[in-house]
């Protein structure tokens, strides 16, 4: 069953650029998230767990309302 939500990976990548985080490896080191997990999330292959979302929000300094839009955008292709 497909999820009704998806992560806005473009918004996450824009935040990485704004914070001058060039690679997934750099984000992994800063956030403490496994590089393979980050790769899956940033490629759109997996939805992040609550723990991963929390670490990304903290590391990228994402405002709560923006975080909600990034991690819980409707997946219009889920049907």
TrEMBL record:
Name-wise, this protein is Helix-turn-helix transcriptional regulator
Q: Which InterPro entries match?
A: Cro/C1-type_HTH (IPR001387), Lambda_DNA-bd_dom_sf (IPR010982)
Which GO molecular function, any one, fits this protein according to its record?
A: DNA binding
**Source superkingdom:** Bacteria
Q: Where is the HTH cro/C1-type domain?
A: 23-67
State the Gene3D superfamilies in the record. Answer: lambda repressor-like DNA-binding domains (1.10.260.40)
């Amino acid at each position: 069953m497909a999820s009704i939500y998806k992560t806005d990976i473009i918004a996450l990548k824009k935040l990485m650029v704004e914070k001058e985080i060039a690679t997934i490896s750099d984000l992994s080191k800063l956030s403490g998230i496994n590089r393979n997990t980050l790769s899956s999330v940033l490629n759109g292959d997996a939805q992040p767990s609550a723990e991963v979302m929390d670490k990304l929000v903290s590391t990228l300094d994402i405002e709560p309302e923006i975080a909600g839009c990034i991690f819980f955008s409707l997946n219009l292709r889920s049907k």
